[in-house]
Amino acid sequence: SYYMSNNVTTHTGGEQVSGNFSAGAKNPYLTYSDWGWAHDPTGLQYYLEKIYDRYEIPLMVVENGLGAFDTVEEDGSIHDNYRIGYHRAHINAMANAIENGVDLIGYTTWGCIDIVSAGTGEMRKRYGFIYVDMDDAGNGTLNRTPKDSFYWYKEVLATNGQKAIKEAEK
Predict the structure, then answer these.
(1) How many domains does the chain have?
(2) Rounded CA gap, 143 and 166, in Å?
(3) 44 near 2, Cβ under 8 Å?
(4) Domain of residue 61, residue span
(5) pLDDT of 66 strictly over 80
């Protein structure tokens, strides 16, 4: 599983950030999610290469995703370009690791559909490519609506990742 990198320092007074089970100093070279998680696809590449170098066994990324506030437009659409950008960057980091010799055999996102966040217990922290009409109190119709990222990721899957790689090359 990979969501973010983390910084540890002996310096005091710097801005702190945290994720589900980690905390550390904010890296001024990275961007952060609404929940303070660093967006660091280069960190994913680094970890894949480091682990593969150490163990020399096939690897699989079993969880990777971005929790974010999604807005439903008046016409019912959900434009989540931030999620597309997050996944595009991480898919490209994996492609770079593969080019550098890592035997990466799979990748799964967290998650394909909005669910209650295991870390915060919130429904408003949305990860999925499919929006579920439910709020933090459990109210809503439970109707499902594909987000822009759904259609983008469908093309990524159909091209075995090449859509994301070609977009990043532009």
Answers:
(1) 1
(2) 33
(3) yes
(4) 41-169
(5) yes
Burial 61-86 (b: 16+ CB within 10 A, else e): beebbbbbebeeeeeeebebebbbbb
- Does a structural domain hold residue 10? no
> How far from chain centre, in Å, is Cα 167?
17
Long-range contacts of 57-61 (CB under 8 A, 24+ apart): 57/103, 58/103, 58/104, 58/105, 59/102, 59/103, 59/104, 59/105, 60/104, 60/105, 60/106, 60/107, 60/108, 61/1, 61/2, 61/94, 61/104, 61/106, 61/107, 61/108
* 127-139 pLDDT tens trace: 999 999 999 999 9
For residue 6, is it within any domain? no
At 4, phi and psi to the nearest 5?
A: -160, 165
Q: Which two tokens stand for residue 87?
A: 């996944």
66 is written with which tokens?
A: 């971005």
* CB 33 within 8 Å of CB 39: yes
Domain membership of residue 164 (yes or no) is: yes
pLDDT in tens, 71-125: 999 999 999 999 999 999 999 999 999 999 999 999 999 989 999 988 888 999 9
Give, for 162, the enclosing helix (H) or strand (E).
helix 162-169
Would you call 153 exposed, middle or buried from its count of C-beta atoms within 10 A (0-12, 13-18, 19+)?
buried
pTM of the entire structure?
0.91
pLDDT the model gives residue 128: 97
